[in-house]
Every structure is written in C-alpha cells, then in structure tokens.
Design brief:
Elements: E1 3-7, H1 16-29, E2 34-38, H2 44-51, E3 57-60, H3 69-77, E4 83-87, H4 94-101, E5 105-110, H5 114-134, E6 140-148, H6 153-163, E7 173-174, H7 177-184, H8 189-192, H9 197-213
Parallel strand pairs: 1-4, 1-5, 2-3, 2-4, 5-6, 6-7
Helix pairs in contact: 1-2, 1-9
The structure holds adenosine-5'-diphosphate and magnesium ion.
Length: 214
C-alpha cells in the first residue's frame, strides 16, 4: 500500500502547495512513483502541475462538506503508487480531517508569523485527534519552518517557538524567489534551479520525510 504524505495547515499562504508539489517531484526524481491529490478547491497544485511538463499523476479532489468522505478516502487509497502526497485546503474541512486521518505523516509548513502559530497549534490538534482514533501512534508529524528569512529575528526564533508544540521540527524551507518563479514557469525547483539553495532545502526535506516513513 502507498505511503501517504499529507501537507496541511489551517492557514493559507504558508507554503503548503509549494512544499507538496516540490516534495512530490523530489520523490519522483528519487525513483518513487508518486500521485498528488489536490484537496483544495482553489486547485493551485493542479494548476501548477498542468501548466508545465510534469510527469506526475495528479487529481483535483476537493470535497464540499462531509458528503462523500468515505468514497474520497477509497479513491485516494486506490492509487497504485509508492507515495501519495495530499495538498490540503487552508481550512478545517472534512477533507482535511480525512487527509490527516489516512496519513502516515502529516507535514505542517509554518511561517515565522505569530498568527501562523495559532493555526499550526490547531493543525497539530487534528493530528492528535487522528492518533487517538487510530491507536497505533500514527500519523507521524513534522513541522516545517517555511518561507524563512534567516536574516530576521522571527526567522531565527521560529524553531524555539515551534518547540512548544511538542512535535518534531524538520529542516526549514527558506524564503527564495526561485520558489515563486518556478511556480510561474510551470517547473519544480529541481528543474527550475537544479543547483540552488532552494533545491537543497527541498532535498533535505525529502530526506527527512523518507527517514521517518520508510
Ligand atoms: N519558501 C518560499 N519562498 C518564497 N516564496 C514562497 C515559498 N513558499 C511559498 N512561497 C510563495 O508564497 C505563496 C503561497 O504559497 P503556497 O505554497 O501557495 O501556500 P499555501 O498552499 O499554504 O496557500 C506563493 O506565491 C508561493 O510561491
Ligand atoms: Mg495551497
């Protein structure tokens, strides 16, 4: 069965889609078969993956309310791939809960803003809820400092702030215009800027996730 990597936070603009698509492509580049499930009605991941020359299986599968959750879960888990990457909407919706509920690992990008920390605490709460239901310790969780400007105090202090949440903190994804530009050109970072700090960040994230799930 596929390993499910769910990228979630209850806030928009934190880098969920950027992390989801780049992580999926990073894993694909490492030889894994990958499917991306875009669970956000906005469809940014779908738009991105359709706009370029990506060789990645992907489906736009948002859910309107709680109807059809079981069917949604069945459709996702029916994917015959090594890794399923789910890009979640920025709200607490049935689909977010389902994506966390079937995850092997929940990857939570969080920026250095204080407002983010509140949303992130709620996302971590969702992970705890899923763990109470599943009773086998799953899903694993990793907090990813995202869009980090290491020159700022907030950027340097985010790791301290995240420690309070009691979940492991993964390698950070720094703020780089290459991430914005690669989206516009329909490429992932490994194609747009193969030798760059931005790619190094995604490679480190991929490594950290693989170490935890495999
Ligand atoms: N590490 C980063 N550095 C610079 N810009 C980023 C980074 N991650 C995301 N962005 C930009 O921030 C915006 C929101 O990112 P996105 O991945 O769509 O967030 P979300 O899916 O959480 O709403 C986009 O314009 C994206 O290109
Ligand atoms: Mg998004």
């Amino acid at each position: 069965m596929a390993t499910v990597l769910t990228v979630a936070n209850l806030k928009g603009g934190v880098g969920k889609t950027t992390v989801a698509v780049n992580l999926a492509c990073e894993m694909h580049a490492r030889g894994f078969s990958v499917a991306v499930i875009d669970a956000d009605t906005q469809g940014s991941a779908t738009h991105w993956l359709n706009s370029g020359d990506f060789d990645i299986d992907h489906d736009h599968m948002p859910l309107d309310g709680a109807q059809g959750v079981r069917r949604w879960i069945r459709r996702v888990l029916a994917k015959e791939v090594d890794l399923i990457v789910i890009d979640c909407p920025p709200h607490l919706q049935a689909v977010t809960e389902a994506a966390v509920g079937i995850a092997d690992i929940v990857i939570i990008p969080v920026t250095a803003s204080g407002a983010d920390l509140i949303a992130t605490a709620r996302a971590v709460e969702l992970v705890h809820l899923a763990r109470r239901k599943r009773r086998n310790g799953a899903p694993d969780c990793i907090l990813i400092p995202s869009k980090i400007d290491v020159r700022t105090l907030a950027g340097r202090e985010i790791t301290d702030a995240l420690t309070q949440l009691g979940e492991p903190i993964g390698p950070m994804v720094r703020q780089r215009t290459a991430f914005v530009d690669s989206f516009s050109t329909g490429q992932w970072i490994g194609e747009y800027a193969r030798r760059s700090a931005a790619r190094d960040d995604i490679a480190a994230l991929g490594e950290a996730v693989l170490t935890r799930v495999l």
